[in-house]
# Entry
Amino acid sequence: MSSKVEKTNSRYRIGLVSHLTGISTHQLRIWERRYEAVAPARSEGGDRLYSDSDIARLRTLKRLSDWGHSIGRVAQPREEERDELLAVHPPGPNLGETSLLAHRVLDQFLTCIGRMDLLDAERCLSRACVAFDPTAFVAEVLLPLMRY
# Structure
């Protein structure tokens, strides 16, 4: 039943998932087909729809892959092994990851800037400043904005 519930919560398209995880759309498709890393739901039109747990799993797999682990090994369903591999590496802020809230803030801010509405852009950043702790605000909102 949880699988059915999870599929109804699948709402993120592949482009957004690529942006949120740092994995190219091409690589996502390969990981799905070759390694069964995730099994996204499909829209009526056949588009891939990912859930929050799919995104979390893909971020974990990407992190392990970036650390040099074979995707074929870490994509297997043994979560205990992945947890052991994650424990070997020191925790720390992963500046490449952006939360869904941060993604929304970035979109809102850029929309305001595109409209040349500086007052709404300032309000958007002020709300984000309150919503995030200082480290997350810098890592997830300010640094990505500096890349634009």
Observations:
- The longest helix spans residues 52-66.
- The chain has nine helices and two strands.
